Amino acid sequence: MPAIRPRSTVSAWQPPVPGIAEVFHARFTDHAYPAHVHDTWTLMILDGGRVDFALDRERHGAGVRDSVILLPPGVVHDGRTVTEAGFRKRNLYLDAFVLPESLTGAAVDAPLLLDPALRERVHGLHRALGTPELPAGAVERLEAESRLAFVRERLHRWLAGRAPAAYGAPGAGLAVRLRELLDARVTEGIGLEEASAELGHVHPTHLIRSFRTAYGLPPHAYLTGRRVALARRLLLAGMRPAEVATAAGFYDQAHLTRHFGRHVGISPARFVSGASRAGPPSARPRTGSTRPGVP
To answer: 10 Å Cβ neighbour count for 121?
Structure first.
């Protein structure tokens, strides 16, 4: 009896991240794309199997390994499965402005980029974009935009055949100004491009590198930590977790719980319960011996 092929599945959604037109995750077992074009850049990584495709009438084959596939807008291509097991892929459709049109020729000549670091960056970007079930407002916008900036920078390096432009050494003063901006926008947050513009149109990756060098973590992680700290204060003040979530800048209670658990180790509800049992500092029993007269 022939083996039963797994069913083809597709998930697609549009994240609230400038430059990303669509996220597309799929498992295909016997699908063949006809020749077609996109008006976006197609950035693909494979999670299993092999795929065969033609780009501008030149055929290519790719397996899982560490490669990234980049197809430019406006150039004819197709795609098909190679084995009975099919393949699993994750695509990002990037708006045409993400990379200069002048890089199209380089992408046609070399659509397979054997670059483990780039693949890891693309994987991290997918993780930041979540799943189609995740509400758009729950996407960590600053994190996703930051990860996209580094993907964009490395793609440009590959296609242009040179290292990214030098933006100078990471600046401590720049990092302080960004921190002040984040501190002032804990609840409402701020996008990377907006922060860059407010700080003098600093290049996004230079801004992130400066902050990480000064404080040891990227801006989006710092902002999340500030929101969790605010949530702790509001919970201790008696506010309910569902109200705390939006007051501290999270999308909903589930969004708060996910980050609160990572930072504090317990859920907001358990945190409040433990604090209530402990009581105010003056009412807590003193540690040490309970014998009379022994401090």
So the answer is: 21
End-to-end CA distance of the chain: 80
Burial 19-37 (b: 16+ CB within 10 A, else e): bbbbbbbbbbbeeeeeeee
pLDDT band for position 294 (cuts 50, 70, 90): very low
Tokens (6 digits) for 46: 């494979």
Distances (CA, A) of 27 to 46, 241, 282, 286: 10, 38, 60, 60
Distance CA 290, CA 292 (A): 6
Residues 159-183: tens digit of each pLDDT = 998 655 555 566 789 999 999 999 9
pLDDT digits (tens, 9 = 90+) for 237-250: 999 999 999 999 99
What tokens were used for 51?
A: 């795929």
Q: How far is CA 45 from the centre of its chain?
A: 15
Cβ atoms of 209 and 170 within 8 Å: the answer is yes
For the record, the structure tokens of 217 come out as 């973590």
* 260 burial level (CB within 10 Å; 0-12, 13-18, 19+): buried
